[in-house]
Design a protein that fits this description.
Distance between the termini: 33 Å
Number of helices: 11
Strand content: 15-25%
Helix content: 25-40%
Number of strands: 11
Order of helices and strands: HEHHEHEHHEHEEHEEHEEHEH
Structural class: alpha/beta
Radius of gyration: 20 Å
Strand order of the largest sheet: 1-2-3-4-5-6-7-9
């Protein structure tokens, strides 16, 4: 038995120096870029106009507030991988992730990229889109900042119809390709649609391949309870990867009523869970975007209602919230040469 123990100990030591393939970029599922308990990273999105703060987009959140969020979101999709360096619009606002990298105002903000691969997950797993994935990997590496990648976001949403087996194989292939490219600044985010009655664990690639777990929150309290419980069991930080008061119109509605019925419980739930370490608020006029017309999403722009704007800023001034700052990346454990180090706010 002692001999076996010695062999096992030697094996563990070797593993520390020679990691298994397809896990190096994920750092064996480490909580990459997770702040300490009680702290929350503010992320804003989801299109250029909603965020603002750019030469051609000056009517967004950043233009109306006295702070810059810790992170901003954008999207791309297979097989074209557009909206990274080119301007794209699928009916939900302009997208071009590269603009944030060029604008000095966002020098201290990380990126959150949603990777759409509906109908492509089998092809990804079989290697048909390796070239496109390498293009994404190259862009992430050149960003020289933390990048959170939401692979196949809302994987359990029936509108996406992802095959669990193909989804897992695609996820692992993407991580493997990033390993081969030497990408260290990417955190892999596994995002559920937040639907209470789905068996979302069927799509789980495994702890060593996932850095964060996440869910969407539109309807209100309780939408992410199953994912929060999952995160506690698997010791993963949680991102509310998409949130907006669906069905509320901040421009024309009663601000006090909207605050009391959606925003107040929203913040109460966030503060009640230390495992929630990042929150993405979608600050958009949904009803003006072609994709969402007639679906009653509303107008979720904080700045269009004075009461909501005032109360939102009171929340954002609390010590819980982390914004962009010159030392943000260092605090999150990011090193420009190594991509990720264990020092800093990580577990």
């Amino acid at each position: 038995m002692k001999a076996l123990n010695r062999i096992y100990s030697c094996f563990l030591c070797l593993m520390m120096f020679f990691p298994l393939p397809a896990q190096e970029s994920a750092h064996f599922g480490a909580a990459k870029y997770a702040p300490e308990d009680g702290k929350k990273l503010l992320i804003l999105g989801q299109d250029l106009g909603a965020v603002g703060g750019l030469n051609a987009y000056r009517q967004g959140y950043v233009d109306a507030m006295d702070h810059v969020p810790a992170g901003v979101t954008s999207y791309t999709g297979l097989p074209a991988m557009n909206a990274l360096t080119d301007l794209a619009n699928w009916g939900a606002g302009d997208l071009k992730a590269q603009l944030y990298l060029k604008e000095r105002r966002f020098d201290n903000s990380f990126m959150v990229i949603g990777l759409w691969m509906v109908g492509q997950e089998a092809a990804v797993g079989q290697g048909a889109h390796d070239k496109a994935i390498r293009r994404l990997g190259t862009w992430i590496k050149k960003a020289k900042r933390p990048v959170f990648l939401r692979i196949g976001y809302e994987f359990d949403g029936p509108w996406n119809n992802y095959s669990p087996a193909d989804f897992i194989q695609a996820w692992k292939r993407i991580v493997s390709i990033f390993d081969n490219q030497g990408i260290k600044n990417c955190a892999f985010v596994w995002q559920s649609a937040g639907i209470p009655d789905t068996d979302f664990q069927s799509w789980y690639p495994g702890d060593e391949y996932v850095n964060w777990v996440a869910y969407s929150l539109f309807s209100g309290i309780g939408q992410g309870d199953k994912m929060l419980a999952f995160a506690r069991r698997h010791d993963k930080p949680v991102m509310i990867a998409e949130s907006t008061p669906r069905g509320k119109n901040l421009r024309t509605g009663n601000g006090l009523s909207i605050w009391n019925n959606w925003f107040s419980p929203y913040f109460t739930s966030i503060y009640a869970h230390d495992e929630i370490k990042a929150v993405h608020y979608i600050n958009a006029n949904w009803d003006s975007q072609k994709m969402w017309i007639g679906q009653e999403w509303g107008d979720s722009r904080i700045q269009v209602d004075s009461l909501i704007n005032e109360r939102w800023n009171i929340e954002m001034a609390k010590s819980s919230w982390i914004m962009a700052s010159e030392n943000l990346f260092r605090k999150l454990g990011y090193d420009v040469k190594r991509g990720f180090i264990k020092e800093g706010g990580n577990k």
